[in-house]
Structure formats: C-alpha cells, structure tokens
Specification:
300 residues
Length: 300
C-alpha cells in the first residue's frame, strides 16, 4: 500500500508540481467571512421557489472538486460542528479500500479532478492517514497531474502537528488553527424545516457548498456535499450513492432530503452557542438509541 513516507523519492520529486511556500502552510484559514455571510444572505432570497421558477436553480454540484471525510474522529469539541463530531462523537474511519475504489472509478470514468480535500473530523487522526495521502499522491502522479491535494486540519495537538510536518511539500495544508476556545460557527443543527423562513424554499437548490467544496465522499457513500453524508450518519437514511455518481447525476433527490435539515442552508448569524432545533434533538436521540443497541465497539 502506498504511503507518502514509503514512496520512492524519485516518484515524489517527479510530481512536485505545486510546492507551497512555508507561509501558506501556517496561515490561518477562516470559514466565516463577511463575503460569505453576504453570499449566504443572497442565497436565502434566491432559493425561494418563485425566484427559482423564473431564474432556475443557482448552484450546480461541482464535477471538479471532491471532499473526502476520511474519519469522524476529532480531538476538539466545537459546538455546532457540521459533522456532529461533538454532538455524536464516533471513531468511524473510512476504509482505505473505499478510497482505492474511488480512485479506480475516477480513472475508469476519465474524471480529471482539480482538487481533492481530505477532512473529517480531524483527518490526520485516521489510523491510515499516511497511506491515504500516499494513494492520492500516486493517483495524481499517474493520472491527474493538475490535481491539488489539500488537507483540512484543525492543527491542534502534537500528533496532528507531527503528521502535518511529515507531509511532502506538494500536499497543501489548510489549517484553521483551532483551540479549545469556541469559534464562531453557523448553527448547523438549526434545521430550516423547523422554522418558517424557508417554507417557500426550493431545497433542491442546495447551497454554494456544492459548487465551492464539491462532491462529498464519506463512509456512508457519495453525496452532493460531505456535510450531507454527516447528516445521514445521524439520521440513518442510508441514501448515499454506493459508487461514483455519473456526471449527469445532479443529486437533486439528495439535496431535497438533506438541505431541509441543514443549518448551512441560506443565511443564519454565526454563533458560539449550541443551537439545536427539534428535528435534530429527535435525530440525536434516535442516534444514541441505535448506538446503545449496536454496542460500544462501533463508537468511541
Ligand atoms: S475541529 Fe472541525 S471536526 Fe473537530 S469538532 Fe471542530 S469543527 Fe468539528
Ligand atoms: S446539505 Fe447543507 S451544506 Fe449540503 S448543500 Fe444542503 S445546505 Fe448546503
């Protein structure tokens, strides 16, 4: 199995197309910005059915970018975590074989991804993190030389920092430098379906994340965004596509199912407090009931 510290140095050297300056690796990445808030405000208006009927849906899922949630382990407990790593912690790791299958299907389908991000949870906590990065790097060298491989990390703790510092220079690091202090987050567990603001919304629009972040691959399968896979982990619909979606598949059926539950839809003020609407309270209650039936071996 390929691992970045076991790859032949020649292979790595040949593929160093995009070596980032050290400052790019240490810069703080912020998810909440004024620009994004303004875009979300516009989205809240634009996704209303009367406007969608006239102008069409504003977002199309990306065929160029992918996000892979390789683990739901995390060493932090951010309130409003949009993968439920705080609300429903779990030591669920994506099998390496699932990453291999994704890469093999990408080659068969002739996909040329422009960016693949590894996330979670905290991706560096995956027990086979190095192997997964090695697989992606080999795929880039052999099939997709323009691909950018990005690790999205909270940068917290010695183990995480050791993993990051061992990454080869062609791997891009997006570091939020989180700490135990709560940051501002969108209230992920405030489901639009529990309020009146979006009663006329067309949830099949999704949000800018399907365009900006791309296709989501999670342990539950493929989704129009990785956040939807994290929602499915809790609600247990089991709706993730089992194989790489075709380019014709807009995944509208999944957007209509998951966006009504997702606090990322439309506009909401960021908060440091946990906000949770009734559908999520019931969702987590059901999740914990299932967890106690499944036994503690599956979940940390
Ligand atoms: S660091 Fe990221 S994955 Fe971990 S709890 Fe915070 S938001 Fe969730
Ligand atoms: S599930 Fe959430 S993040 Fe994904 S498209 Fe819908 S609103 Fe956006």
């Amino acid at each position: 199995m390929a691992s970045f510290d076991r790859m032949p140095s020649g292979a790595i050297q040949d593929c160093k197309r995009r070596v980032r300056a050290p400052s790019a690796r240490t810069a703080i990445h912020r998810n909440i910005t004024l620009k994004r808030l303004l875009l979300d405000f516009g989205h809240a208006i634009r996704c209303q059915r009367p406007l969608v009927r006239i102008l069409g849906r504003p977002f199309v899922r990306s065929r160029r970018w992918v996000e892979i949630d390789i683990t739901y382990r995390c060493n932090l407990r951010c309130l409003n975590c949009n993968r439920s790593c705080t609300q429903a912690p779990a030591a669920i790791d994506m099998p390496v074989a699932q990453v291999e299958a994704f890469l093999a299907d990408s080659v068969s389908a002739g996909m040329q991804w422009r960016r693949i991000r590894l996330l979670g949870g905290e991706p560096t906590l995956h027990p086979d993190f190095k192997s997964i990065v090695g697989l992606l790097d080999r795929y880039r060298c052999d099939h997709d030389p323009g691909l950018r491989i990005v690790i999205c990390t909270n940068g917290r703790g010695r183990r995480v920092r050791e993993m990051l510092s061992a990454l080869p220079p062609q791997i891009i690091i997006k570091n939020t430098h989180k700490t135990d202090r709560q940051r501002l987050f969108r209230p992920f567990n405030n489901a639009p379906i529990d309020g009146r603001r979006y009663r006329l919304a067309d949830f099949g629009c999704g949000c800018r994340i399907i365009q900006d972040c791309g296709l989501g691959l999670t342990p539950q399968g493929y989704y129009p965004c990785a956040i939807a896979g994290g929602i499915d982990r809790i609600f247990g619909f089991g709706l993730g596509r089992r194989s790489l979606p075709s380019v014709e598949d807009d995944m509208i059926d999944l957007l209509e199912r998951f966006c009504p539950l997702c606090g990322q839809f439309g506009f909401s003020w960021p908060t440091r407090q946990l906000r949770m609407s009734p559908v999520w309270e019931r969702g987590y209650a059901r999740y914990y009931r299932c967890q106690s039936r499944t036994g503690p071996s599956l979940f940390a």
